[in-house]
Specification:
This is Archease. The chain is of the alpha+beta class. The chain has helices at residues 21-35, 57-75; strands spanning 2-8, 11-18, 46-54, 77-89, 92-103, 114-115, 121-125, 128-136. The longest helix has 19 residues, at 57-75.
């Protein structure tokens, strides 16, 4: 799984790929962390759980990233080392995961205001999965 930060007018975008949908979600979340910080510490912070449900895969990705932005604001931590397990359950998509919350006081963080649906894409490819997400900074 990998991600790349891309300039996007006044915003920043994350392009990610992974062999699995779960890996893709974790890669995009790690991209969100990289968009909010120049250097991520290798240690420190405690893991916290993340649970999200949505009606579609793009809605699940949006809600997951929105939940991470919320956790950053409420817990005053930068969610890093993201782990995610994505499943389709009937007419609903679910994500169970966790993140390591690095205290914002320990990093030189910049604010990522919100995830957007602008140009959002989640697609299965011959090699796995790809996503593109624009963040408002």
């Amino acid at each position: 799984m990998s991600f790349e930060l891309r300039d996007h007018t006044a915003d920043v975008a994350v392009a990610a790929s992974a062999p699995s949908l779960s890996g893709l979600f974790a890669a995009v979340a790690d991209g969100l962390a990289a968009a909010g910080c120049e250097e991520i510490p290798d240690a420190g912070g405690e893991r916290f759980p993340v649970e999200v449900r949505a009606e579609g895969v793009e809605a699940l990705l949006f809600d997951y990233l929105d939940q991470l932005v919320y956790e950053r604001d409420v817990r005053a931590v930068l969610p890093v080392d993201n782990e995610a397990e994505v499943r389709e359950e009937g007419a609903e998509w679910t994500l169970s995961g966790s993140a390591r919350g690095v205290p914002l006081a320990d990093v030189d963080a910049r604010e990522v205001k919100a995830v957007t649906y602008s140009e959002m894409c989640v697609a299965e490819t011959a090699d796995g999965w790809e996503a593109y997400v624009v963040f408002d900074v």
